Prior knowledge:
The protein is mainly alpha-helical.
Amino acid sequence: MTTKTVSTVHPRGSTSAAGRVRAAGPRKSEVGLFNGLGQLALIIWAIVVVVPILWVFLASFKNTTEIFSSPWTMPAALRFENWARAWTKAQVGQYFVNSVIVVGFSTFGTMLFGSMVAYVLARYKFIGNRFVYYLFVSGLAFPVFLALVPLFKVVQGFGLLNTYTGLIVVYISYSLPFTVFFLTAFFKTLPSSVAEAAIIDGASHTRLFFRVMLPMARSGMVSVTIFNIIGQWAQYLLPVVLVTDKSKYVLTQGIAAISVNAGYEADWSGLFAALSMSILPMIIVYAIFQRQIQAGLTAGAVK
Length: 303
């Protein structure tokens, strides 16, 4: 009796089920490995960011002895007088108000002018369109410290040194490149059919922008607004150059002055309380608008 051996021949270009399983196995393991490494990197980064902030916040409730003798332990008591002392005696309250005024007006001006420029560059074709766009984008690569001396002379020439107006105008100028770069790409993703319908209905260009296109770009506007607020709130170099009057100091200048002028009698608990006051508003703002920021950053890519 003869036994016939039947061999299965697969057509060229086809792969057996076992081969597909073997090929898919390494790919899944590689994806899992990269996901694990990515999550590990995010955990390390979160620790690096969160631990110093948490340490500063806890130190704001300690006294000087506790800060140096047991820096990694919980405070023995919640000393809110440290915050009150920093707010009044160290004049952090005045610095905080100055920062709110400057950042509030500069962010409003940045978003108003930046959105108008970005809309025109994104939706209208004219001679020099690309040149103007690249001129704004080039501002992203220009280091701030290279222009400090001429900037000081220009602001001095206009008589705007030690004024809110001078600081606000400079903040707007240095925030426009990023704002125009981001919003130009965002306005390009908006549908043209809505704008054409509004023009047919008799809407002017101004009405079309403020009543139709701007509300449609709300998610992108919110994202850029938050980034501008955070960047301008943490700005230190420009105020140091343009503001020497202590009554006009913003929060970053005021905190630096507290640590420098104290000498050997440094009020460390008051200093950490002042730092906490400057950090908490930005954390709260980001926590409130987190969803809008994520939606604005992904909307352009999805469309």
